[in-house]
Amino acid sequence: MRKASLISILLILVTAITTKAQTANEPEMADAMRSNGKIYVVVLVLATIFAGIIAYLIRIDRKISKLEKNK
Questions:
Q1: For a designed S-S bond to 33, which of 24, 39, 47, 65 qualifies (C-beta 3.0 to 4.6 A apart)?
Q2: Which backbone phi and psi does 65 adopt, to 5 degrees?
């Protein structure tokens, strides 16, 4: 049940962020980074950090669930 709610919250946040990003004016820095190909590095780093945080939270949730079952 917790995994489903976590995934739902994650999808809502991603949808909200992408909707906001599409309506905003793009700064000149984004154009320069895109033309140099550096924007993909930034996106990859952010995705890696985000995936690490999600994996950490899932791991902590599993440990807490095991502790709750033992008590």
A1: 39
A2: -60, -40
Judged on CB neighbours under 10 Å (0-12, 13-18, 19+), 30 is: middle
The domain spans of the chain are 2-70
Distance from C-alpha of 58 to C-alpha of 71, rounded to nearest angstrom: 20
* Segment of 3-7, 26-30, 55-59 carrying the highest mean pLDDT: 55-59
pLDDT band at residue 21 using 50, 70 and 90 as cut-offs: low
Question: Cα–Cα distances in Å, from 58 out to 19, 21, 40, 48?
Answer: 26, 27, 27, 15
pTM: 0.53
**Three-state secondary-structure class, residue 26:** coil
